Every structure is written in C-alpha cells, then in structure tokens.
Amino acid sequence: MANVSVYNIEGKEVGTIDLNDAVFGVEVNEHLVHMAVVSQLANKRQGTQKAKTRSEVSGGGRKPWRQKGTGHARQGSTRAPQWTGGGVVFAPVPRDYSFKMNKKEKRAALKSALSSRVAENKFIVVDEIKFDEIKTKKFQEVLNNLNVNKALVVLEDGNTNVEISARNIANVKTARTNTINVFDILKYNTVIATKAAVATIEEVYA
Predict the structure, then answer these.
(1) CA-to-CA dists, residue 168 to 140, 155, 188, angstroms
(2) H or E element: which one contains 19?
(3) CA triplet 121, 26, 7: central angle to 5 degrees?
(4) Which of helix, strand or coil describes residue 193?
C-alpha cells in the first residue's frame, strides 16, 4: 500500500495514511486514460455546425454561359464550389460526436489517473477543510500553506462553504467524490483530497 503524509490546513504534517492499492496503486493503462479524455471532450461538443452544399445554396439554377465557343471553361452553375458564393464541397452537418465507454473501462481509467498522481507525488491528503464562513482569502491561504497553485480539490459532500470559497480562484476546481473525472485529474498539477473524500473514493471504487 502507498503510504502518504496527511497535512492540516496550516500545511503541517499531522500523520500518514495508507492508500488502497486497488484504487491508488493500479498499473496505469494509458490507452484507457486517453480514451476517457477523448470521450469526455467529445461528449461536450455541441455538434451544431452547419454549412450549405451546392444543392442548398439559393440561386445558380441557370447555366452561366453556353457550353462551347466562349473561351471560358464549361460551367453548369454559379453555385458550384469553385465559385464565390458557391456551396461547400464536404459541408459539415449537425451530428453527435459522443461515444460510449463501458463502465469497467471508465473505472479502470479513473483508477489509472489517480494512481499516476500518487506515483508522481502530486496527490495531497488533508485531514479536513472546514470553514465557518465563505472566504476566498482563507482558501487561498490553505493553498499557499500546501505550496500549491493549480489544483483539483476533492471534498466530501455537504462542504458548501469551502466549495464556494474556492470558486473565484483561478486554476482551482473543487469536486465531490461522485463528480471526479479523468480529464480534471490530469488537467490540474495537483490533486488535494480530504481524508473523508479518500475514504469515500476507496469505498466506491475498491
């Protein structure tokens, strides 16, 4: 089992925790991680782009000049793709870019992403983060104490004050244990998780 230090919000080490190898110590499957990221980005695409083909552009029904004898190349329509104002050759049409990953593949990709963060020493466990009030400055102090600037902060459910306090800080995103995903884990330099969040993750994914 991977053994990592546990810090308090002042940035001081207050103990250690053993991470479950079934979640935080698996062999990284780069193919599944890549697939999960591509899937997530593809699923976010609106797919509403549209351009007109030559059959959809208005006008151009008349042959611009006779077939022979003008010295010009033969033309059948002023809305052909080579004309200004003509249609687009292979025009994009609205489509759905999303594709499905199996549940086991998604879980394996998430475990791989978490394991890679632990292996790179970019996974920080905090005993707890609790605020009595919503205070951005206070949350920034916590980040400074942990010497972190770009982070994904994983919190247990119901920690609303901390979530709102972090909302206005650039390069920081909060997530609950049921909303963590491969893209965010890889996007941010460091993953910060509370002990309660780690316990929930191990319970769900082990």
Answers:
(1) 10, 17, 16
(2) strand 13-19
(3) 30
(4) strand
Query: Does residue 1 have a pLDDT over 80?
Result: no
Provide DSSP, 131-142: -SS--HHHHHHH
End-to-end Cα spacing for the chain: 13
**pLDDT category of residue 206 using cuts at 50, 70 and 90:** confident
Question: What is the DSSP secondary structure assignment for residue 67, as one 8-state letter?
Answer: S
pLDDT tens sequence across 102-118: 999 999 999 999 999 99
What are the structure tokens assigned to 125, written together?
């466990």
CA atoms within 13 A on the CB side of 25: 9
In one-letter notation, the amino acid at residue 21 is: D
Q: What is the CA radius of gyration of the chain?
A: 27
- 12 CB-contact burial (10 Å; exposed 0-12 / middle 13-18 / buried 19+): exposed
Distance from CA of residue 199 to its chain's centroid?
23
- In three-state secondary structure terms, 74 is coil
Query: What's the pLDDT score for residue 36?
Result: 95
DSSP 3-state assignment of 143? Answer: helix
Q: What CA–CA distance (Å, rounded) separates 108 from 101?
A: 11
Q: For 49-182, where are the E strands, in sequence order? A: 123-126, 151-155, 172-176
Instruction: Round to whole Å and give the CA distance between 63 and 66.
Output: 7
